[in-house]
Design goal:
The complex is a heterotetramer of chains A (539), B (110), C (316) and D (228). Chain A is mainly alpha-helical. Chain A has a single domain (32-510), classed as Up-down Bundle (Cytochrome C Oxidase, Chain A), CATH 1.20.210. Chain A has helices at 23-27, 32-60, 71-106, 115-137, 151-155, 160-187, 200-232, 245-279, 286-299, 315-342, 352-375, 377-383, 387-417, 423-450, 464-494. Residues 1-5 of chain A have low confidence and may be disordered. Chain B has 110 residues and is mostly helical. Chain C has a 5-stranded mixed sheet with strand order 3-2-1-5-8, covered by helices on one side. In chain C, strands 4-10-9-6-7 form a 5-stranded mixed sheet. A two-stranded antiparallel sheet of chain C has the order 11-12. In chain C, a hairpin with a 5-residue loop joins strand 2 and strand 3. Chain C is of the alpha+beta class and 316 residues long. The chains are: A mainly alpha (539), B mainly alpha (110), C alpha+beta (316), D mainly alpha (228). Chains in contact: A-B, A-C, A-D, B-C, B-D, C-D. Chains A and C meet through helix 3, helix 5, helix 8, helix 10 and helix 11 of A and helix 1, helix 2, strand 7 and strand 9 of C.
C-alpha cells in the first residue's frame, strides 16, 4: 500500500455507518463498531460531568476559606468526580471504545466472540450509570470514591446505597466486556496471526481484560456487603459490633489497585501503536513490552495494601506489600525505555497522536517515578493522603490514561469516521493539554510535600499560592479538552475523506476501508508477517 | 475441540464417591481431631470439588486453556486470602521499643 | 526569599531530617529519570524527524543487553530504595521506651487529647521539646488520621482499635495538625495545632491548667462508679480477676488461648467481655455506656496498678 | 448432518462449529473465574472473622442444623449427576433423556431453594437468629453460645456471613433453575439435540460450579465446632 495518497480518497459506498439508519439500527446493533460509538457518546457525557465537578472544586480552592461551596457540596463533588472518572469514564474509555472498535479488526475477525453480550454490556453500563446519576441528582453521595467504612455505612446520610448499586451494576458491564475480549483474542484470530504477531494494543487489552475479570467481582461483592451493612447494620465493618473496618479496605483495594492498571494498561497499548506508527518502526523489544503487560496484570494484584500503610494495618504486612509494590515499577519502566528506544533511527512525524504519545511517555514517567515515593514505607507516611498522592495519580490517569485515550481517538478517528480531523487544531490542543496539565498537577506535588491534606475544602492560608497556580492550570486544561470536542464533532461530518490508511501505518485495521464494512473485511485476511513490519515494506 | 462423551459408568462412580465423601465429612464433624477437624473437612471438600471439576465439568478432557483459567481463579483467590491474612495475623505484633538518648540539640527558636 | 511560597515543610522532629534525606534522594532520582526520558524523547524526535513522506527507516534490531540493562538497573535501584525506606520506617515505628504517653480520641470533627496528669485539650496538643511522646489513639466514630507534616508522622485513628505513633519535637513553636483521612462533612475543619514548648514553659503550662485529677485517678473513680469494684477485688475473692498487677500479664482465656493484657486487650475486655479462665462469664458489656475517653481512663488506672516496675506508667 | 445444516448452527462471527464451541465453553469458564472471586470476597471475610472470633463461629455453627446442610449437599450432588447426564444426552442427541434429566435437575434445585427458604431460613427467623432483622438467641441457642463463651455480636457476625454466603449461593441456584427451565422449553421444541448443545453444556458448567460452592459452604458453616 502506498504511503502517499496520490488520488483523492473517497468514502466507500457502503460501510458500517451507512448500512442502516434509524435509532433501532443503533440501539439494537450487535456490530462492535457501533457499540463502540454508543460507549463513546456515554463516556464523553460522563467525562464532561466529572470535569465540571473538578472545575467547581478548583474554583473553590482559589481561596483558602473556600467561600464558593459549602463543605458538604465540596465533598459530594470530589466523590462524584472520582467515581465518575474512574468507573464511568476511564475504565470504559480505551477498552470499551477503542478496544471494542479495534480488537476484532486488529485480529482479522468479523466481530467479537459474543456480539449480543457486548450490546448487553453497554445496556448494563448505562443502567449502572443511570442508577449512579440518580444517586447524584437525588442528593449526591459524600463518602469519597473509596467508600471507607464505617463512615459510609453508618455516619453519612447521603445516597450511599444507590451509588454503590450503580458501581455494582456497572462492574458487571466491565466483567462481561473483559470476558468477551479474552475469548475473542483467544479464539477469533485470523489465520497466521500468532500470539507474537499480535499488535501490542491487543496484548495490553488482554492484560486489562484479565484484571477486569478477576478484580471486578471483588468490588461487586464488597459493594453488596456495604449495602447490606448500611441497610441492616449487622456490623461486618463496624468495630462497635466486632467488625473490622480494615477488612473493607483490603477488599476495596484488592480491586482498587488493579483497577488503576485497568485504566493505564489499555492506554499503554495505544502508545505502543502510536510510537510504532509515527516512527515507522517495529516497537523496540516487542516481547519485553508484551510480557511487561502480562507482568503488570499479575503483579498489580499483589500490591494493594500500599494504599494502607498508615491505616493501622500490620506494619509487617506493610513490608511485604512495599517490596511487591516496587516489583510492579519494573515492567512499567521497561515499557517506557522501549518506547523511547523505538524512535531511534526512526522516521518520526509530529502528527497530533504522536504529540500525545510523547506527552504520555514523559508524564507517565513522572507519575511512575513519584509512585516510588508511595511504595517506600517511610516516605509514604508523610505524603499519604496529601496532594502528593492526588498529583501522582493524576499524572498516571490524566497524564497517562487520558493522554493515551486522546492520542488513540485521534489516531483511529479517520478509521472510525472515514474522515480527517483538522491537524493544526489537534496539535494546538495537544500542546494546550500538556501545558495545562503540568500547571494543574505539578504544583500539587509541592502542596502535598508541604503537607496539605487531600479532600479539604478549606485550607490554611500558606497553601494558597500553589492552589491558585493549580486552579489557573486547570482552566487551561479545560480549554484543551473542549477544543477537540468541537473539531472532532465538526470533522465527523465535514472533514475530508481519509482513505483506508492516512498514516501509512501497518496493522490489519489499515487494510480495510475507512470506515470499515459491517463485517470489517471483504474477505478474511491471512497474516504472514509480524506486527509493525515497516522495514520490509517495498524492500 | 472435539466433543468427548463420558461413559455413564464414570458419572455414576463419581457420584457414589461424592456421596461417600459427604457422609465421611459429616462423620468427621462428630469426631475429635483437635485442630485437624477443619483441615480434614477442607481436604475432603477439595477432593469433592476436584472430582466435580474433573469429571462432571469435563476438565479432564478439556484443552489446556480452561485449566489455565481455573488455575488463575484459584490462584487469585489464594492471593486475596493469603495477603489479607498477612495483615490480620501480624497486626498485633508490636515493634520492640527503642532506646532513647536525649541527644538534644538546644531548642532553636523558630 | 519566596515569602509565602511554601517550598518545604518545617523540619521539627527527630525523624524529619532522616526522612528528608530519603525524600531528596528519591526526588533526585525522579528528576534525573524525568529529564533523561524527556530529553531523549525530544532529541530522538528531532534527530530522526521524518524528512520525506516515503522514508523507510532501517529495521528495528533487538538488543538483549540493553533490555537487561534497563530491567536490572531500575530493579537494583528499587532494592536500594526499598531497603533504605523500610529500615527508616521500622526505626520510625518504634517508640522509644522512655516515651511519655498521651491519649488522643478522634471524633467528628475534633481532636480530644488527654495528658496522663489529667489536663485535657481540644484541637491542641502541648508538648515539651526534645522529649519522645507516644500517642495512643482511637476514634469514637469514623476513621480519622493524626498527621503532623512538620514531624513527618501520620497514622490513621481507627474506631475499635488503638493505633500508636510517636515523635520527639526538636523545635519549639506551633505546628499544624491535620486530619488526613476523609471523615465526613467537617473533614477540612478537623485541624489543630501542636504547640511545642521549652520544658520549663511546659511545666508551667501543665500547672496552670485548672487542677484536675490524673487519668489514673479519674479511672479509679469510674471503677467505683460503674460498679466494677464489686467483682474485681482481691485475688481469689471476687468474681472477676483483680486489676492489681494485671497490666502486661499473660492471661489464660476460657477458650484456651493466651493473651497479653495490653491496651487493646483491656479495651475489648471492657466493651465485649472475654471470659478469663477461672472466672464465671458474667461480666456485662460496657459497649455504649462508656466513652472512649473513659475506657482510656480505666486503662490508665489499670496501668497504675501494674505491680512490676518494668512497664510503669511513664512519667516525666 | 448435512453441510448446510451445520452452517445454520454457527453464528456469523464464527468460522465453524468447533470455533464456536471452543469460544462458548471458554467464555463460561472465564465467567466462572469471575464467580470464584465474587464468592472469594465472602470467603475472605469468613476467614478473617473466623480467625478473630473462632469460638463465636463454633457456637454459631451449632445454631445451624446439620440435617439441612447434609441433605442440601446430597441434593446438589444428585442434581449435578443428572445435569452431567443431561449434557451427555444432548451430546448423544437423545431428546427424551435430555428432557428427563433436565426436569429432575430443575426439581432438585427448586426443592433446595424451597427447603432453604421455607424451612431453614424461616426456622432461623422463628428462633430469632437473623442479624439485622431479629437477632436475640434464646433458650438452648443461648446456652450453646454461653458454653462457647462467645460474644453475641460476634455470633451475629457468623450468622450474617451465613445468611449472605448461603443467600448469594441460593440466588445463584435460582438463576440456575431459571436457566435450566429455559433450556427445558427450548429442548422441548427440539433444540440442542441436533449437534448444537453448547447452551446445555455451559449451563451444566454453571450448575456444577454452584454445586462446588456448596461443597465448601457445607463444612465451613455447618460442621465446625465439633459435635463430639
Amino acid at each position: 500500500m502506498s504511503t502517499v495518497a496520490v488520488e483523492v480518497p473517497a468514502l466507500p459506498d457502503v460501510h458500517y455507518l451507512n448500512v442502516s439508519y434509524g435509532w433501532r439500527s443503533w440501539l439494537l446493533t450487535t456490530d462492535h463498531k457501533r457499540i463502540a460509538w454508543l460507549y463513546l457518546l456515554a463516556i464523553t457525557f460522563f467525562f464532561f460531568v466529572g470535569g465540571a465537578a473538578a472545575t467547581l472544586m478548583r474554583l473553590n480552592l482559589i481561596e483558602p476559606q473556600g467561600s464558593l461551596l459549602e463543605p458538604a457540596t465540596y465533598n459530594k463533588l470530589f466523590t462524584v468526580h472520582g467515581l465518575i472518572m474512574i468507573f464511568f469514564f476511564l475504565a470504559p474509555a480505551v477498552p470499551a471504545v477503542l478496544g471494542n472498535f479495534l480488537i476484532p479488526i486488529m485480529i482479522g475477525a468479523r466481530d467479537v466472540a459474543f456480539p449480543r453480550l457486548n450490546l448487553l454490556s453497554w445496556y448494563i453500563f448505562m443502567l449502572g450509570g443511570s442508577v449512579f446519576l440518580y444517586a447524584v441528582i437525588g442528593g449526591g453521595v459524600d463518602t469519597g470514591w473509596t467508600f471507607y467504612t464505617p463512615l459510609s455505612t453508618t455516619y453519612v446520610n447521603t445516597n450511599v446505597i444507590s451509588a454503590a448499586m450503580g458501581i455494582f451494576i456497572s462492574g458487571f458491564s466491565s466483567i462481561l466486556t473483559g470476558l468477551n475480549f479474552v475469548v475473542t483474542i483467544h479464539k477469533m484470530r485470523a489465520p497466521g496471526l500468532t500470539w507474537f504477531r499480535l499488535p501490542l494494543f491487543i496484548w495490553s487489552m488482554y492484560a486489562a481484560s484479565v484484571i477486569f475479570i478477576l478484580a471486578m467481582p471483588v468490588i461487586a461483592i464488597t459493594m453488596v456487603l456495604l449495602m447490606l451493612e448500611r441497610f441492616f447494620h449487622v456490623g461486618i465493618f463496624d468495630p462497635a459490633l466486632g467488625g473490622d473496618p480494615i477488612l473493607f479496605q483490603h477488599l476495596f483495594w484488592f480491586f482498587g489497585h488493579p483497577e488503576v492498571y485497568i485504566l493505564i494498561l489499555p492506554s499503554m497499548g495505544v502508545i505502543s501503536e502510536l510510537v510504532a506508527a509515527f516512527a515507522r518502526k517495529r516497537v523496540f523489544g516487542y516481547s519485553f513490552v508484551a510480557f511487561s503487560s502480562v507482568a503488570i496484570a499479575v503483579i498489580s494484584f499483589l500490591v494493594w495494601a500500599h494504599h494502607m500503610f498508615v491505616s493501622g494495618m500490620s506494619i509487617y504486612a506493610g513490608l511485604v506489600f512495599s517490596a511487591l509494590s516496587f516489583a510492579v515499577a519494573i515492567p512499567s519502566a521497561i515499557k517506557v525505555f522501549n518506547w523511547t528506544a523505538t524512535m531511534y533511527q526512526g522516521s518520526v512525524s509530529y502528527d497530533a497522536p504522536m504529540l500525545y504519545a510523547i506527552g504520555f511517555i514523559g508524564l507517565f514517567t513522572m507519575g511512575g517515578l513519584t509512585g516510588l515515593f508511595l511504595a517506600s514505607l517511610a516516605v509514604d507516611v508523610h505524603v499519604h493522603d496529601t496532594y502528593f498522592i492526588v498529583a501522582h495519580f493524576h499524572y498516571i490517569m490524566v497524564g497517562g490514561a487520558v493522554m493515551g485515550y486522546l492520542g488513540g481517538i485521534h489516531y483511529w478517528w479517520p478509521k472510525m469516521t472515514g474522515r480527517l480531523y483538522p491537524e493544526g487544531w489537534a496539535r494546538l490542543s495537544a500542546l494546550i493539554i500538556f501545558i495545562g496539565f503540568n500547571l494543574t498537577f505539578g504544583p500539587q506535588f509541592i502542596l502535598g510535600y508541604v503537607g496539605m491534606p487531600r479532600r479539604y475544602s478549606v485550607y490554611p492560608a500558606e497553601f494558597q499560592i500553589l492552589n491558585v497556580m493549580s486552579s489557573a492550570g486547570a482552566s487551561i486544561l479545560a480549554v484543551g479538552y473542549i477544543i477537540p470536542l468541537i473539531y472532532l464533532l465538526w470533522s465527523a461530518r465535514y472533514g475530508p475523506p481519509a482513505g483506508p490508511n492516512p498514516w501509512g501505518a501497518k496493522g490489519l485495521e489499515w487494510l480495510t476501508s475507512s470506515p470499515p464494512p459491517t463485517h470489517n473485511f471483504e474477505e478474511t485476511p491471512i497474516v504472514t508477517e509480524e506486527a509493525y513490519a515497516y522495514a520490509q515494506e517495498e524492500a | 475441540m472435539t466433543e468427548h462423551i463420558v461413559p455413564k459408568k464414570i458419572y455414576i462412580l463419581v457420584f457414589a464417591i461424592l456421596i461417600a465423601f459427604t457422609a465421611l465429612t459429616t462423620a468427621v464433624a462428630y469426631t475429635d481431631l483437635g485442630p485437624f477437624n477443619t483441615v480434614v473437612a477442607l481436604a475432603i471438600a477439595v477432593c469433592k470439588a476436584s472430582l466435580v471439576v474433573l469429571f462432571f465439568m469435563h476438565m479432564k478432557y478439556n484443552p489446556g486453556m480452561t485449566r489455565i483459567v481455573l488455575a488463575a481463579a484459584v490462584g487469585w483467590l489464594a492471593i486475596l486470602l493469603a495477603l489479607t491474612l498477612t495483615d490480620v495475623s501480624s497486626r498485633h505484633w508490636l515493634p520492640a521499643p527503642q532506646g532513647w538518648e536525649s541527644s538534644a540539640p538546644s531548642p532553636r527558636p523558630r | 526569599m519566596w515569602q509565602g511560597f511554601p517550598i518545604r515543610p518545617d523540619q521539627a522532629s527527630t525523624i524529619a531530617a532522616g526522612w528528608d534525606h530519603l525524600f531528596y534522594f528519591l526526588t533526585g532520582i525522579s528528576i534525573f529519570f524525568s529529564v533523561l526520558i524527556f530529553s531523549t524523547l525530544f532529541y530522538l524526535a528531532i534527530r530522526y524527524r521524518r524528512r520525506s513522506q516515503d522514508e523507510i527507516p532501517p529495521p528495528t534490531k533487538e538488543n538483549l543487553p540493553i533490555e537487561l540493562t534497563w530491567t536490572l538497573v531500575p530493579s537494583g535501584l528499587c532494592v536500594v530504595i526499598f531497603l533504605w525506606a523500610t529500615s527508616l520506617f521500622i526505626r520510625n515505628s518504634r517508640p522509644p521506651e522512655a516515651s511519655a504517653e498521651i491519649f488522643v480520641v478522634g471524633k467528628q470533627w475534633m481532636w480530644k487529647v488527654q495528658h496522663p496528669e489529667g489536663p485535657r485539650e481540644i484541637n491542641e496538643l502541648h508538648v515539651p521539646v526534645n522529649r519522645p511522646i507516644k500517642l495512643t489513639m482511637t476514634s469514637e466514630d469514623v476513621i480519622h488520621d493524626f498527621g503532623v507534616p512538620a514531624f513527618r508522622i501520620k497514622k490513621d485513628v481507627v474506631p475499635g482499635m488503638y493505633t500508636t505513633e510517636w515523635f520527639a519535637a526538636t523545635q519549639t513553636g506551633r505546628f499544624h495538625l491535620f486530619c488526613d483521612q476523609y471523615c465526613g462533612m467537617g473533614h477540612s475543619s478537623m485541624v489543630g495545632w501542636i504547640i511545642v514548648m521549652p520544658p520549663d514553659d511546659y511545666e508551667r503550662w501543665l500547672n496552670s491548667q485548672v487542677k484536675v485529677e490524673s487519668m489514673a485517678a479519674a479511672g479509679a473513680k469510674l471503677f467505683l462508679q460503674l460498679g466494677c469494684a464489686t467483682c474485681h477485688v482481691a485475688e481469689g475473692v471476687g468474681l472477676g480477676p483483680p486489676l492489681q498487677g494485671l497490666f502486661g500479664k499473660e492471661l489464660k482465656l476460657q477458650n484456651g488461648k493466651t493473651v497479653v493484657a495490653d491496651d487493646a486487650f483491656l479495651r475489648s475486655a471492657i466493651l465485649n467481655p472475654i471470659p478469663v479462665a477461672g472466672y464465671p462469664p458474667i461480666m456485662p458489656t460496657f459497649q455504649g455506656q462508656m466513652s472512649e475517653d473513659e475506657v482510656l481512663q480505666i486503662i490508665a488506672y489499670t496501668k497504675s496498678l501494674a505491680t512490676s516496675g518494668e512497664r510503669k506508667d511513664t512519667k516525666r | 448432518m448435512s453441510e448446510g445444516h451445520a452452517q445454520a448452527l454457527v453464528a456469523e462471527q464464527f468460522d465453524d462449529v468447533e470455533q464456536q464451541r471452543g469460544a462458548t465453553s471458554l467464555g463460561m469458564w472465564v465467567f466462572l473465574a469471575t464467580e470464584v472471586l465474587f464468592f472469594g470476597g465472602l470467603f475472605c471475610g469468613y476467614t478473617l472473622y473466623r480467625g478473630l472470633y473462632s469460638s463465636a463461629f463454633e457456637a454459631g455453627s451449632h445454631l445451624l442444623k446439620i440435617k439441612f446442610g447434609a441433605s442440601y449437599t446430597v441434593m446438589l450432588i444428585c442434581s449435578s449427576l443428572t445435569m452431567a447426564l443431561g449434557v451427555r444426552a444432548a451430546q448423544l442427541r437423545r431428546r427424551k433423556a435430555l428432557l428427563i434429566f433436565l426436569i429432575i435437575t430443575i426439581l432438585l434445585g427448586a426443592a433446595f431453594v424451597f427447603i432453604k427458604l421455607r424451612y431453614e431460613w424461616y426456622g432461623d427467623y422463628l428462633e430469632h437468629l437473623v442479624p439485622g432483622i431479629d437477632f436475640a438467641p434464646e433458650g438452648e441457642n443461648l446456652v450453646v453460645i454461653q458454653r462457647f463463651g462467645a460474644a453475641l455480636p460476634h455470633v451475629s457476625l457468623f450468622m450474617f456471613l451465613y445468611f449472605v454466603m448461603t443467600g448469594v449461593h441460593a440466588l445463584h441456584m435460582i438463576i440456575g433453575v431459571g436457566l435450566l427451565a429455559t433450556l427445558f422449553i427450548l429442548a422441548w421444541r427440539g433444540h440442542f439435540t441436533g449437534g448444537h448443545y453448547e447452551p446445555v453444556e455451559i449451563s451444566g458448567l454453571y450448575w456444577h460450579f454452584v454445586d462446588i460452592v456448596w461443597i465448601f459452604l457445607f463444612p465451613l458453616l455447618y460442621l465446625i465446632g465439633g459435635r463430639y
